[in-house]
Every structure is written in structure tokens, then in C-alpha cells.
Amino acid sequence: MTLPARVLVTRPQPQADAWARRLCSAGLPAMALPLIEIGSAPDRVAVRAMAAACGRACW
Fold first, then answer.
1. What's residue 2's pLDDT?
2. What distance in Å separates the CA atoms of residue 24 and residue 9, rounded to the nearest whole number?
């Protein structure tokens, strides 16, 4: 089996570091690269309006 050159973990912090450590301890070359951040919406009214509009969409 050929191992990947590197596994990039793009979870938010601190999850990215924890996942990278676990993968490294399992023998996989892993590196944390947190590309997303999860937080509160800055404009809750806009989020509610968007959610309501999605409910009216024809999927």
C-alpha cells in the first residue's frame, strides 16, 4: 500500500491539530490546515430570511 504524500486536515481549530496528531500517530503524514471557522452569524435576520427563501425553493 502506498501512503499519501501528505494528508491536509481542513477542520477548524482546535479540531485540525487533534486530527493531525491522531493521523500522524497512526503512521500517516498529516498536517493541520484549518480553512474554515465556525461561529455565530453576524446578521441573524439575514440568515432567517435566507432559510425561509430556501424553504420556498423548488429542488
1. 76
2. 11
Cβ neighbours of 32 (radius 10 Å): 19
> Residue 4 pLDDT more than 80?
no
- Sign of the torsion formed by the C-alpha atoms of 31, 33, 37 and 38: negative
Kind and range of the H or E run holding 8: strand 7-9
**Do residues 2 and 29 make contact, with C-beta atoms less than 8 angstroms apart?**
no
* CA pair distance 36, 25, nearest whole angstrom: 24
Task: Look at the pTM and tell me if it is higher than 0.70.
Answer: no
Segment (H or E) for 39: none
